């Protein structure tokens, strides 16, 4: 399928200009249909049952999980279905046996979901170093490299910033981690939907992502593990090989991390979402978003009283652009964009409050983010409306 042909699958785009895909993407009709089909035609629990519906549901659920694992380049590793990125990161934080004096390295670019779990470990005597970017949000890879010492147990970094759109050199970071014996967690919430991601090739140990940001249903996500070496957060139904009154043996693969009934319809929907993304092709998606992003940055940066945050960062970026309008609170800008032009953007601190403080933007920013269904005309409408706004304030 050509990328220009996909819009008909997203009815919301008929009436609204949706530029908030970094928070949650829209979902196309085939994904919704796959979930409805499960609910109406073969709904049953998955696992060990033998009746015909459970056999179909189990087969479709496992196929979907395999499709997601392969989509993130995770063959050879283990993929557990989670509710979202936050849960996936939490499973790593809870699943490693921490000892006093262990060291975790992370950055100030992180979403709260990849910062708070590590800060909480300080209560257990874990040392947490938060590497800071410069005043414009640029992270010097040398600073990160210097922080990763031989006694570092885990490095947890984002692949792409949900505020600045910048992409971190995770492959190089993985090299440093492996030289120094540290494990690497990559928060891929913003990269898996937008870039071709190869978990095994990147050299990370854990890759965490959200299904709802990549055309899939809410309540779905994934934790990919190079080795299934984490203690599961929950144990119970579905997660065991065998159990007696005295103990249990956990299942060897992904099941050990999926205690209880998983989001069956959700996972099947997510499986359909990755098939949809494959039909368009991640390279085509990348190309489309690069073009829109350049137009967005150029258009906004040319306006008086509008500042694009972190626009001059070199290297790769995703279609996420943060900006401020002089004299207006970001929430006010977002509200006017909605009322005046049905342009939906996000505003505030984007769950990155420490980064916002560091950038001197305690009120946060306005953030526009693109995806496969975004058009040039929509970007131009955003720019024209912001221009009008900024003239009114000046
Ligand atoms: N990390 C990043 C970089 C994100 O952008 C987000 C979502 N905004 C998250 C983590 C958390 O994702 P979720 O809410 O799906 O758990």
- CA-based gyration radius: 22 Å
Query: How many strand units?
Result: 15
User: What portion of residues is helical?
Assistant: 25-40%
Name of the level-1 CATH class of the largest domain? Alpha Beta
User: Are there runs of 5+ residues with pLDDT below 50, and where?
Assistant: none
CATH architecture title of the largest domain: 3-Layer(aba) Sandwich
CATH superfamily of the largest domain: Type I PLP-dependent aspartate aminotransferase-like (Major domain)
Question: Could you tell me which ligands this complex binds, including any ions or cofactors?
Answer: 4'-deoxy-4'-aminopyridoxal-5'-phosphate
Strands of the widest sheet, in order across it, are 2-8-7-6-5-3-4
Separate helix tally: 12
Describe the structure.
With 394 residues, the chain is of the alpha/beta class. It has two domains: 131 residues, Aspartate Aminotransferase, domain 1, CATH 3.90.1150.10; 251 residues, Aspartate Aminotransferase, domain 2. The strands form four sheets. It has a seven-stranded mixed beta sheet with strand order 2-8-7-6-5-3-4, with helices on both faces. A four-stranded antiparallel beta sheet has the order 11-12-15-14, covered by helices on one side. The protein starts with 16 loop residues before the first strand and ends with a helix. The model has no long low-confidence stretch (mean pLDDT 96). 4'-deoxy-4'-aminopyridoxal-5'-phosphate binds next to helix 3.
């Amino acid at each position: 399928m050509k990328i220009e042909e996909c819009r008909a699958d997203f009815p919301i785009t008929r009436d609204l200009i949706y530029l908030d895909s970094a928070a949650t993407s829209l979902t196309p009709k085939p994904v919704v249909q796959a979930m409805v089909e499960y609910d109406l035609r073969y709904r049953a629990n998955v696992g060990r049952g033998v009746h015909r519906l459970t056999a179909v549901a189990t087969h479709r659920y496992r196929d979907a999980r395999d499709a997601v694992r392969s989509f993130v380049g995770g063959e050879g590793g283990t993929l557990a279905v989670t509710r979202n990125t936050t849960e996936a990161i939490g499973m790593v934080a809870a699943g490693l046996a921490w000892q006093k004096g262990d060291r975790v390295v992370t950055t100030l670019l992180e979403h709260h979901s990849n910062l708070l779990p590590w800060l909480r470990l300080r209560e257990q005597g874990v040392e947490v170093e938060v590497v800071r970017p410069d005043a414009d949000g640029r992270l010097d890879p040398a600073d990160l490299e210097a922080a990763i010492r031989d006694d570092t147990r885990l490095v947890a970094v984002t692949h792409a910033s949900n505020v600045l759109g910048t992409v971190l050199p995770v492959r190089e970071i993985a090299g440093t981690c492996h030289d120094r014996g540290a494990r690497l967690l990559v928060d891929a919430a913003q990269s898996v939907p937008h870039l071709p991601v190869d978990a095994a090739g990147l050299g990370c140990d854990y890759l965490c992502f959200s299904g709802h940001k990549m055309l899939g249903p809410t309540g779905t996500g994934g934790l990919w593990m190079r080795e299934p070496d984490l203690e599961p957060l929950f144990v119970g139904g579905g997660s065991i090989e065998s159990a007696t009154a005295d103990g249990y043996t956990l299942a060897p693969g992904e099941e050990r991390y999926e205690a209880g009934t998983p989001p069956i319809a959700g996972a099947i929907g997510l499986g359909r979402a990755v098939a949809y993304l494959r039909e368009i092709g991640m390279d085509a998606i990348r190309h489309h978003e690069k073009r829109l992003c350049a137009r967005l940055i150029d258009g906004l940066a040319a306006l008086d009283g509008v500042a694009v945050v972190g626009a001059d960062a070199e290297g790769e970026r995703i279609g996420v652009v943060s900006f401020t309008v002089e004299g207006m609170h970001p929430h006010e800008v977002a509200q006017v964009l909605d009322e005046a032009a049905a342009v939906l953007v996000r505003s505030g601190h984007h769950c990155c409050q420490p980064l916002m403080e560091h950038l001197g933007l305690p009120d946060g920013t306005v953030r526009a983010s693109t995806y496969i269904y975004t058009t040039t005309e929509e970007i131009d409408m955003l720019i024209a409306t912001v221009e009008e706004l900024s003239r009114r304030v000046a």
